[in-house]
Amino acid sequence: MAQSRTSGGKLFMAVVYMLATCRAVPIDDLLNRASGRSDEMYSLSTGLTKDLASHMSPLSWPAMERPALCHTSVLPTPNDKEQTLQVSESALMSLARSLLQAWAEPLVILSNHASTLPHPARINISNKIQNLQDYSKSLGDGLDVLSGKMGPEAQVVSILPYHGGTDLGHDRNSKLQKFNFLLSCFRRDSHKIDSFLKVLRCRAAKMQPELC
Q1: Considering the chain, what is the average pLDDT of its residues?
Q2: Reported pTM
């Protein structure tokens, strides 16, 4: 399975680089592929949060709903579709790349703890976290290529360091809560990334805003 994930990521990047170096291929084709990968990443993170929720006490939820504490919350981003449609193409690409790169370290932390998580589906969760890492890496590489075709502003990346530490806690509830909190933050940001790329794809294809 790991070999299949790696092969899929390499194939995705091979296609992106091949298309990017071919001037006859429009940018909307490249954005279609990037948008497809971001959609996979968001769908997988959504499924993972449901997997975790199936084995968590309802009393734990209030403590975990803290989106303002996500380490990426310091980055100003559009709050809804209407605001997103007002942002330039280059700025949307910069935001997507900034959010994606901010998750490189936290995804490693999630991966390191997934296999020992006090959850009956920990093996499945661990495999899915590895998938998320692969998707994030290949999408990031693809966006690096795309940003190079969109001008200097698209290549600007805001640094969003993670200061949450690598320890998820010592008792069962603490580990599950912190793991779920990180994953919920990632799901939130992957939804933003997916939304930004869908708007970019629609604009490149000259679709009406209401169809994006």
Answers
A1: 85
A2: 0.84
